[in-house]
Amino acid sequence: MNGIDVREVITRAHREEWARVVASLTRRFGDLDIAEEAAAEAFATAVERWPADGVPPNPGAWLTTTANHKAIDRLRRENKRDDKHKEAQMVHDDAPPEPAGAIDDDRLRLIFTCCHPALAMEARVALTLRMVAGLTMPEIARAFLVAESAMGQRITRAKAKIKAARIPYRVPSAEDLPARVRGVLAVLYLVFNEGYLATGPDTDPVRHELTAEAIRLTRLIRALLPDDGEVAGLLALMLLTEARRAARVSAGGELVALDEQDRGAWDAALIAEGHRLVRERLAAGVAPGRYQILAAINAVHTSARDMRDTDWSQVLALYDQLVRLDPSPIIALNRAIAVAELDGPEVALAAVDRLEPRLAGYHAYHATRADLLRRLGRGQESRAAYDRAIDLAGNTAETAYLTRRRDQLR
């Protein structure tokens, strides 16, 4: 295996194993800083040794063992653990077993640790994206539309608060779940979104390992809270979105818009499961939350055999309901796309332009404007909007799509 191949293996291992290594070390040592630093040192050691020694048969196990040794070395150097019981726990890998009935999943424990209600909601979500999903600081900052430096400070403060408050690393009791589940769902939604459409130029445009893990963890949460409508709604939303994955990127690496996708390539089993969950929530007769409404919108889209069959009136009615719950500019932007189908691009463009102060740095805002301007025949303005969207977009498949659309204006 040559050096390029080894680097690719290490990059893949980082994507697939980072969260497992961090979660395992957090369970054992009870310290997020130690866990993250030891994991980072283990990957740095892999970069040094694997090209010369060869890739180990089980990279994940090698990384976990190496990270454990790094953590133990650090604790001994700093003389932070002189208690004999803690020393024994360091030397012997097995931590005390969880009480019967707790979920035996390290990542889920870590999510609930990071989503403690003592932390501000944005800090909970940002910290968990870093520690559990292994997203980079630029990726997390883009998800929140804030500066990378500000996001770094937010995560540092969150870790310090967990340590100072001695927040335990465990799945909370049933009584604790309602106070934490909102943050957990926000984390899983953003992890899924980063997999569905990766924000960085240095990764695959669609990261299946992230979408699959987000779905797996959401299923675990649903097992904990089977009557929670928002958990069911988020799972339905993920399934209906994941069902379209095979049709979303062309063989040439370009994003395929919804109206151009081969609907025969959609996963019928995932769509059926997602629709069933949406129907169950409707039958419950309880006012839906944000994720349930988003799932219902996706159910409308995936019910149409052709883009022309889409019930845009229903989509717009659902967005009107969603805006009352979540008046964010991104929801308003997505609503404007439905408005364009019903009332025309000119009405939609007026709605989109009102969002400019809050979404000027968001590539999808400029991409939406570019498309509406194109439909209105305002080619020069459309081209300028496409240029801005291309400058801001990080996803390689999306950049290729926007570039083709811009170049068609010639």
From TrEMBL:
UniProt lists compositionally biased (Basic and acidic residues) regions at: 80-95
- State the residue spans of region: Disordered: 80-99
Q: Which InterPro entries match?
A: DUF6596, RNA_pol_sigma70_r2, RNA_pol_sigma70_r4_t2, RNA_pol_sigma_r2, RNA_pol_sigma_r3/r4-like, TPR-like_helical_dom_sf, WH-like_DNA-bd_sf
The record places domain RNA polymerase sigma-70 region at: 20-80
What residues does the RNA polymerase sigma factor 70 region 4 type domain cover? 111-162
Q: Does the keyword Acetylation apply?
A: no
Q: Which SUPFAM superfamilies match?
A: Sigma2 domain of RNA polymerase sigma factors (SSF88946), Sigma3 and sigma4 domains of RNA polymerase sigma factors (SSF88659), TPR-like (SSF48452)
Keyword entries, A-Z: Sigma factor, Transcription, Transcription regulation
Name one process (GO BP) from the record: DNA-templated transcription initiation
Locate the DUF6596 domain: which residues? 180-280
> Which GO terms of the molecular function aspect are on file?
DNA binding; sigma factor activity
Under PANTHER family, the record lists: BLL6612 PROTEIN, BLL6612 PROTEIN-RELATED
Its family remark reads: Belongs to the sigma-70 factor family. ECF subfamily.
Q: What protein does this entry describe?
A: RNA polymerase sigma factor
